[in-house]
Amino acid sequence: MTDQNPIFIPGPTNIPDRIRNAMNRQTVDHRSPKFSELFGSVLQDLKTIFKTSKGTVFAFPSTGTGGWEAAIENTLAPGDKVLAARHGVFSHRWIDMCQRHGLDVEVIESEWGNPAPAETFAERLAADKAGAIKAVLVTHNETATGVRSDIAAVRQALDRAGHGALLLADGVSSIASMNFEMDAWGVDVAVSGSQKGFMLPAGLALVAVSEKALELSRVSKTARCFFDFQEMLKANKAGGYPYTPALQHFYGLRESLDMLSEEGLDRVFARHRRAADAVRAAVSGWGLELCSKSAPHHSDTISAVYVPAGFDSNVLTDLVLKKYNVSFGIGLGQMNGKAFRIGHLGSITDTMILGGLATIEMAMNELGYPVALGSGTTAAQQLFAQRS
Q1: Tens of pLDDT along 299-347?
Q2: Mapping DSSP to helix (H, G, I), strand (E, B) and coil, where does residue 246 land?
Q3: Are the C-beta atoms of residues 190 and 208 closer than 8 Å to each other?
Q4: What is the pLDDT of residues 143-166, one digit of tens each?
Q5: I need a surface site. Which of 42, 183, 322, 362 has the fewest CB within 10 A?
Q6: Long-range contacts for 179-183 (Cβ within 8 Å, ≥24 apart)?
Q7: How far, rounded to the nearest angstrom, does the alpha carbon of residue 78 sit from its chain's CA centroid?
């Protein structure tokens, strides 16, 4: 029976029965008109989630990491200079990928728990009179720290400097759960993945591309094959793929998009905000601290929580898994052993949140944390009662 317990990791997320049932079907010919019709409707409706009318959306059989790779391989070349902030594990991994591709990365080191520093971006861009910086990379939602960065502020920094650099945004753990406005924020490439807010298994990198970035991919001489925008665009226009697609994922994605539409994006975002606020109320009730340092930048999909000095967060997450068969995220990078993470995104309800909070509260109490039973769950219950 414990196999029915939800998980509280930042992804992959819980998969609704509707989506699992939609994916449980026999293979069809991916070059048939039947698949082409499904495929076309999915690509069109994905634009609504990214909030773009001008962009082109691609669905690569990959994960968010593949989406990052597609973004840089199609728009940049070895030796190009890019500007990025390192303020968590996933912003670091994108920087590392750029360096492996031979890009010249100007790294802005920022304390973990802070968002990408838009003001520092503005200073660096204003000083780049020669336009050496070809792209600015921003992690919208840092999954390791539970911090949301202001993409619109980075676009404003580019515009104030009159700079022509591309704006590339990692929205893997935010898009479809938190508001993301590709067109309004002037994003050139936005990357997401199927296993977070879209509530599917891992297997699709969802990449939205502006006209400017798409044009660069036409003239780019950077070697690429699997992630080639132009090859994908040509095949997509004909109703298919340049290679074998992740077929069953598209049936699941069709169902996911229908579910998001039925709920309404504003209500989806409000549900995630309510869940996040309840988690934060519980953290405060426990007397613990979030990694995220400022309320305006708290993530609505992930909360990273520091454990008290003298305790090991890995012992806590291990106990919860072994005794209650419930998974929480471990601390990553410099937070390993110091913090645990609560994923509250995708298929998540108020009731599920309360169950997860009560479970980890029992584990903390058992390990001797200075946390009274009921202290966090009561705070979360009170918030849900107010928001109902």
Answers
A1: 999 999 999 999 999 999 999 999 999 999 999 999 999 999 999 999 9
A2: coil
A3: yes
A4: 999 999 999 999 999 999 999 999
A5: 322
A6: 179/51, 179/265, 179/269, 180/49, 180/50, 180/51, 180/140, 180/151, 181/51, 181/152, 182/50, 182/51, 182/52, 182/55, 182/208, 182/210, 183/51, 183/52, 183/53, 183/54, 183/55
A7: 26
